[in-house]
Every structure is written in C-alpha cells, then in structure tokens.
Amino acid sequence: MRVECYEGKYHAVDSSDMASATPRRTGCARRCARPGRSVLEPVSRLTVTVPAGLQGDVLGDLSARRGRISSTTVLDDGRELIQAMVPEAELSHYVLDLRSLTGGRGVFDAAPDHYDIVPRRSSPRSPPKPRATASPTSSAPALDVACMIHPAGPGPGR
C-alpha cells in the first residue's frame, strides 16, 4: 500500500519529519480500518526443547504469547520437544524469557512460516509504526508500511 499526501507545504523552520509522517500514518490507519481489510503479521514455527519438569511453564508462556501448540513429544533423554506457531511480534525477548523459565536449560529454534490475520480483540498493542523513506523519483518521502492489504475472504492459513 502506498499513501501519498497532497497539498502539503515545506518550510525550512517550521517543518519536520514528524509533521509529514503524521498524515501518512493517519492515512494508513484509515485504509487498514476499511471493511474487508485486515492487518497481517508474520508467524514463526517454533521448536522448543526443555526439561520434562518445565514443560507446563513453557506451554503456559507460549499460550500467553498467542502461540498455538502443534505438538509435544518426549525425547529419548527425557526432555520435551514442543512445536508451536507463534507471532513474531511475541518473540522479541523470548530467548531471555525461556532462559529465565528454564534456568538456562531450554533451547529453541524459530523459522518464519506464514502470515496470519492479527486478531483485533487479543492485540493490546498497536501495529508497528510506518517508517518514512526517501523516494528516488520524488522529493516527497514514500511510505514503508507495516500492514498489508488483501481482498476480503478467507485469510491465509485458514
């Protein structure tokens, strides 16, 4: 999606990046709020290996991060292998949180898997803010948007 601003004026003293970014951000938010539009987020396939006694704590933590548990398996050495799909936005500090939960005995691997619709009711934070970038063909900055627009209908992964 591209948002363009018209009728804007630049003044060397009074103008700022914030003054030009605010209307673009508002335009993006209005566009994403239209019926039939959804904000998508990247979802990662997460594989976590933890000691058996800590499986419940890790499963609870993954559920709190909007994770969907795919499977749990007992390994030959007594550890538990947990596979889940977790939104990438929830994984930013996961390495530290897993280390804290397991006393440094848990390990995980995350790989991008797909995009899924952000549930409006369970997303307490706003989506990432768009970043303004210079456009090579125009003096006005272009917009690098954090949301994706797709036609109405079944979402990906459904």
How would you describe this structure to a colleague?
It is built from three helices and six strands, in the order αβαββαβββ. The strands form two sheets. The chain has a four-stranded antiparallel beta sheet, covered by helices on one side. The chain has a two-stranded antiparallel sheet with strand order 5-6. With about 160 residues, it is an alpha+beta fold. It folds into two domains: about 1-40 and about 125-158, no CATH class; about 40-115, Alpha-Beta Plaits (2-Layer Sandwich). It is elongated and about 65 Å long. Helices cover about 25% and strands about 30% of the residues. The chain has helices spanning about 15-35, 55-65, 95-100; strands at about 40-50, 70-75, 80-85, 105-115, 130-135, 140-145. Strand 2 (about 70-75) and strand 3 form a beta hairpin.
Question: How would you sum up this structure in a few lines?
Answer:
The longest helix has 17 residues, at 17-33. The chain is of the alpha+beta class.
List keywords for this structure.
158 residues; alpha+beta; Alpha-Beta Plaits; 2 domains; four-stranded antiparallel beta sheet; two-stranded antiparallel ribbon; 3 helices; 23% helix; 28% strand; disordered C terminus
Order of helices and strands: HEHEEHEEE
Strand residues, percent: 25-35%
Number of domains: 2
* Total helical segments: 3
| Strand line-up across the major sheet | 2-3-1-4
Q: How is the topology of this model organized?
A:
Layout: H1 17-33, E1 40-51, H2 55-64, E2 68-74, E3 79-87, H3 94-102, E4 107-117, E5 131-133, E6 142-144
Antiparallel strand pairs: 1-3, 1-4, 2-3, 5-6
